Structure formats: C-alpha cells, structure tokens
Please model this.
Amino acid sequence: MAELAVVSVRKAKLQKYLEEGNKKAQIVFDLLEDPNEFLSTVQIGISLIGVLTGAFGGVTLSEPLSRLISFLPYNDLISIIIVVVVTTYLTLVIGEIVPKVIALNEPEKVSLKVAKSMVILSKIARPVSFILAKSSSFLLWLMRIENKNKDRVTEEEIELMIKEGREDGTIEQEEEDIIQRVFKLDDQKVDSIMTPRNEIIWINLEDDKQINKVKIIESRRSIFPISSGELDDFIGVVQAKDILSLMFSEENFDINKIVKEPLVVSENLETLELLREFKENQEYVHMSLVVDEFGSVEGLITLNDLLEGIVGDIPGIDEEDEPQAVQRNDGTWLIDGRYPIDRFKKLFELKENLPNEEEDNYTTLAGFILSLSGKIPNEEDKYECGRFTFEIIDIDGHQIDKVLVSDSGPEITEE
Model:
C-alpha cells in the first residue's frame, strides 16, 4: 500500500498539503526524490513477510492440521496444500489487493499516513537497502537505462484528464473548449486572428474631414488606425469615444490631439506572446498593428480578437460581416472564403491537419484553396481534396469570396 500510494501520488496535490503546513508532505517528496532506496526498503519488507508467512504456515500450521485429518490418506500432503492455499488467499486479499485499491483511491492521504513509518523502516533497513539500491543502479547502468523520475505533465496528458473530467461531469463543455483554445493559441501566430489589411478601416489625414466623418459613422468601429497618404505610414490610432468627446468640447478640433501609439508586432509573433505584450505595455491602446519583415502593415488585432481566441466568437455591432458557413438543401455547404480553417475542421470533425497546413500556415478556407491551386482561381474552378470538392462561386477582385463545398463523408474502413 505504501509503495503504490507514494509512486501514484500527484505532486500538484501534494504541494497543496505542503503549503498548508503538513510536514509529512515533505517526507513524501523526499521519498520520491530517491525512489531506489524507498523501493528497496519496501521490497525488503515484502520479501521478509513472504518468507515468514511461508515458514510459519509450513511449520507451525501444517503439523497440527495434519493430526486433525489423520484419518485421511496422505494427510501430511493435504495439510500442506490447505495451508498454502489459505495463506496465499489471505496474502493476496489482505496483503495485496485491498491495500493497493485503498492506495489508488487516495494516494495522497495514504502516503501522508505511512510516510513516517516508511522513513523509520528505511533507517532500519538502510544497510541492506543500500546494497540493493546500488546493485539495481549498476544493472540499470549496464543496460544503458537512465533512471528518470521527473513528473512532467504534457499537454496531451492534460487534455486526456480534461476529457475524462468532461465525461464524469466534473468539467463543463465550455471549460473544456476554453482550455483547448488556450493550448491552440500557444501554437498559433498572430496572423491567424488578425483582421487582414484589405479589411482594415483607417483614417487618411489627406482626405477631406467630411469623408473621414462618414467613414467613422458608417463603419461602426470603435478604433481606427490613422495615417497620412498610405496605411504603412501610420501615425497611430484613435478611438471613436475620443473623437466624440473632442467633437462635443471643440467645434474645430485637431484629431492629432487624441492620437495614441499602437503596439506594433511582427506577423511571426505567437498569439500568447501578444497577450503578454498587451499586459506589460499598458501605455498602449489595446490594439496592435501587425507588420511584415519590410514594415508593411499586414493586419490589425484588438484585445477582443484575443478574447475570442480563448472563449470563442463574441458577436459585436461592428462584426456584421462575420464569415459564415450555410448548409443548403442538397447537403452542400456555401462557405465564405474568410471562414477560419480551424472552424472548418471542427465543422466537418476533421482531426488531422489539412494538406500543407503547417508548411503554408494558412488560416482561412481561401488560404487553403490557394495552397491547393498554387494560383488565384477563377469562378467555377473546382478542386478535389480527399472527401471534399471545392467549387469557387464568387471572386471579389483577387479575393475568394464564396466557396461551394461538397462532402462525401468520412471513409469507412473495414476491419
């Protein structure tokens, strides 16, 4: 019981006991730090009990039992068999199965209860356990097996635990979704959540004030990059609330008074790193401009975009043109070209990566089709990939606007 409890203990839970001032928790940590000596001590105890049980059962019990059944032929042999069967049964049930089940059910609590006893036993058996530990270490060295005892938890293990918790009802579906999105954010670049350059609504100081006024009102956005001539020559960003406040206070206001400095990041920055930048650089407005290696603006990211990456889509009054996927009566899907590739995979329950997904790093359905075709397609062009057929329905300039997707369904493998 002690052996299974200590090796099955979860360090994170044990750490909680340690922080609460439980001194026995430190003893368990020490046992885990040197498992060779601990396991050798346990094995000594198990071996001694096995030897003593055999000797006691064979010598002490078999003889009186043999006299009781002296009227039977082969009474000596029968008595030994009975004693062996009974002691084996008791050893397995009382000495093995029940203690191990108890240890597996509450490994932390059991390990804390037996901690001091194991330390005392280790001190008593130290000379023998030292020889056993060194002998086992030498054999492991000969076999070139490294003795690892690092309790590392991987993302895959956490995801499995979350899935188990979801099935048990201890974790809600929304909680599972959020945790999975956080893991995914760590592997994504900022270009996967940014508003692309061709969709950025920005204020050009060279335009007439009335033009900019109409642009601000009709866009219904809350924040705007501001530039002079070209977007790449941006000066900063302005917020709609600051413009409104200045309009009420000054009849002929100067927009330069309310320009704020944006956070400028590389398109290769990881998404979680951007979140850290937002937290650390509090003097910036919560909007970032994404630039390429030449300093050209590639896109725009707000704090709301990051939040959506964690909790999912949040409807907003400035997001009426959210990319959609609509299933038609014939079973085909009409999908916007800007539809995120992650949502596409979730829609069709795809577990594996799509072709060239990691190499080309595309983030939308249009990007996937461009990766397939290698060129800007024309309307009515068709592409086949696995179970899917993609037909280009509408092209807006050089941008894929609408795609008709036919799905033949997942392949059924015969076993």
Notes: Residues 35-68 form the longest helix (34 residues). The chain has a mean pLDDT of 80. Residues 8 and 226 are 59 Å apart (CA to CA). The two ends are 42 Å apart (CA to CA).
